[in-house]
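User: Please run a holo structure prediction.
Assistant: Happy to. Please share the sequence and the ligand.
User: Here you go; the ligand is nicotinamide-adenine-dinucleotide.
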Amino acid sequence: MAEYGNMQTGTLMAGKRGVVMGVANKNSIAWGIAQQLAAQGAELAFTYQGEGLERRVRPLVESIDMDFMIPADVTDDAGMDAAFDQIKAKWGKIDFLVHAIAFAGKDELQGSMVENTTREGFARAMDISVFSFIDCSRRAAEIMPDGGAIICMTYLGAERTVPSYNVMGVAKAALEASTRYAARDLGPKGIRVNAISAGAMRTLSLAGIRGGKSLMGTGREWSLLKEDTRMEGVAGCALYLLSPIGHSIAGEVLHVDAGYHAVGVPDLPEEG
Ligand code: NAD
């Protein structure tokens, strides 16, 4: 019996097939999104970074009664060719793609952006976190003859400065611009491309950022809803953007962060 956690069940994605990239463990945003899409009837293929992660990812995939798993490191062109060939061979075409992949070195995700960003670190962050999205959008579009939808994951650090986020903020700004350009290119083919800007969530990626836990605390305190960003909200937004009810939305960055992005000044202390 498939387990979908707290996700809403239904048939919005019945008959639709798609690729979810970026599940590393049960806390991954990609996993929350996958559970929600499966709970609405989607059939999923999972790509994961490499053999080392299979042990963690397989039980999750099996818990929602799926088994299509492909190792794929986004920096390896031959591996990416093989992954998409495998998807094409099995399904012929797909309806959607979820890109939830990013990386920057620990040394870069602390202190001063100006001091700590090396040429090599910059190139790696941009390659894995931004180019891979452009590359995957091209590969996915080739097997979306009937149109489809693509999403990626971004963060407020693209728009405003966030301590320690540094080169990843620069990469997310480029990712958001890439979302708009991909939406422009693929729109005429009936493919909608959008991004979700999620608030800080407790995942492996957040653990790589110096002070990541404090980012969550501040996010909660400053947010309009006075709560953490919930996986159900992020996954629900993904469902909205990837399903037919998201019609007419393209080139958008939707914030799912308990309203944090809308705050200029946090609550003031009582004046005595
Ligand atoms: P996560 O660590 O669970 O997921 C990141 C994924 O990227 C992992 O599955 C990892 O294997 C994959 N990855 C890294 N390098 C790769 C490579 N070379 N090839 C293939 N895969 C690779 O963390 P997450 O928080 O779920 O991150 C998913 C996305 O959400 C990222 O784009 C992240 O920047 C974004 N995001 C996270 C937060 C947050 O607070 N956690 C907030 C907003 C946006």
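The chain is about 40% helix and 15% strand.
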